[in-house]
Amino acid sequence: MAEIGSRDKAATQAIELAQERGIETVFARAESTRPCPIGSEGLCCRNCAMGPCRLTGRTTKGLCGATVGTVVARNFARAVAAGAAAHSDHGRDVALTLLAVSRGGVSDYRIKDEAKLRAVAG
């Protein structure tokens, strides 16, 4: 097994402990699993019930007529939207906490540098 590490000391320790105990990790699976050549290039479309369409070889359009460029763009846009949706709640929580602090509704937090807050908010 290859040497796996992280910049985070605790993460590196957890990975090493898993290796010592024979626990399979994503790193071990990445070494032993070949990615699908169609999916890794974004050429597999599963966006409707007619597919999946795999645009390889002479197949240049999906059943719906989507070209390779359209399929890749759709897959990328869906991945970006999923990532943004998964993490947008963090920003919302920060904004709500700062609003509560500014209104005096929270005693556990305080604004230490108002100029920095205004710069970041801008």
A few lines on this structure:
The protein has 122 residues and is mostly helical. The protein has helices at residues 9-20, 26-32, 37-40, 68-102, 114-121; strands at residues 44-45, 53-54.
Mean pLDDT: 85
Radius of gyration: 23 Å
Work out the strand percent. under 5%
**How is the largest sheet built, in terms of strand order?**
1-2
* Secondary-structure element string: HHHEEHH
| Structural class label | mainly alpha
Q: How helical, in percent, are the residues? A: 40-55%
- Major sheet: 2 strands, antiparallel
Number of helices: 5
**Low-pLDDT residue intervals, each spanning 5 or more residues:** none
Shape: flat
Query: How many strands?
Result: 2
N- and C-termini, Cα separation: 48 Å
Question: Can you walk me through this structure?
Answer:
This protein has helices spanning 9-20, 26-32, 37-40, 68-102, 114-121, and strands at 44-45, 53-54. It is mainly alpha-helical and 122 residues long. The longest helix is centred in the C-terminal third of the chain and has 35 residues, at 68-102.
